Amino acid sequence: MKILLILAWRNLWRNKKRTLITISSVLFAVLLATLFVSMEKGSYERLIDSMVKYSTGYIQIQDILYDEEPSIDHTLLFDEEIEEILNKYEEQIAYHVPRLQNFVLVATENNTRGSILNGIDPELEIKMNDLNEDVVKGEFLKPNDNGLMLAEGLAGILNVTVGDTLVLLGQGFHGSTAAGTYPIRGIVDLKIPDINNNTIYMSLSEAQWFYGTDNRVTSLIIMPENPARTQQLAESLRKVIDPEWHRVLTWEELLEDLLNLMKFDVAGTMVMMMILYIVIAFGLFGTILTMLIERRKEFALLFSLGMKRAQVAIVCFFEALFISMAGVILGIIISIPVVAWFYHHPIPLSGDMAEAIADYGFEPVLPFSADPTIFINQALIVLIISFLIGLFPVYKVFRINIMEAKK
After folding, report:
1. Where is the MacB-like periplasmic core domain (predicted)?
2. What is the pTM of this model?
3. Tens digits of per-residue pLDDT, 119-147?
């Protein structure tokens, strides 16, 4: 076997130019595929990270009925039982963020608009998403504050600013009426238009008093110490929490629609990737086919001298495998520093595209992912392609007619 491997390697360099061109085609195909997948995965990772920080968190504990029917009547009682469960897993939980969210009608002297009122713990909210850095006027809420913080878009619609007073009217717990007047403490730019035009923040204690929910919240967000172990932590919580009253949801379940949309987008990306893989396959196949045609007489002579067909087939198979492996290895070696550079220095965008991305609260750049599986997957796919193509010369060697080949 050692001699056959040496023969296969030496045969590749009998035509150096053809071998180098084939290796280069595999190299650049692997490099392009790796960069393309890294850029797409990086964009998805940044999108998910933003949604997790500003919206759902990694894990939520809710009332069993809240996800199907979001209502103030289906709130979660944040009592000693829940606190004991959190304390039990305090080594795995970085912190938790309680929220009370419900619809409210907000009015000024001349304007009225329906909005979403978010009761938050200011200190924990800052820890989760640095919301205080987005304040453009006034100041961020303080614990037990009896004022409001308004999204910038909603403040513009209502034509109000810091120091003005708003009237809030809504439905409280168990059909009670929730009403009150509150001063505006600050205005925050939430970037995403739909959220920026409909959001009000209030301290959690004040929101609980406003809705009459006592110590209830619509959701208890849990941020794990290790986000990679989100599923394991969620499963542990499900085992100890009462399933008749409470429900534990992960960010995948809470963002199911977004993830389905991303899967649809991935399907389109796979079409582009298939084109690259086809380029690799035809490049290898063309090289192997040319080598077989040129060496038909050589094979016939080797058979006449007593070399077995199986041995010649093994040599041809490893020739195809060596070419692809050389291209894959060089492609991965080159792509690692390139991806690492773009991971630490994302490509900046400009013009209308940059403005559109910035309007939705994201940095106007093309982010890249440095996930090791990207490199491993590309190497495996190309090696599988080369393995399948390497079976073709094996088939042809066993089918060669010695007399016809000699002519």
Report:
1. 19-239
2. 0.67
3. 999 888 888 888 888 899 999 998 888 89
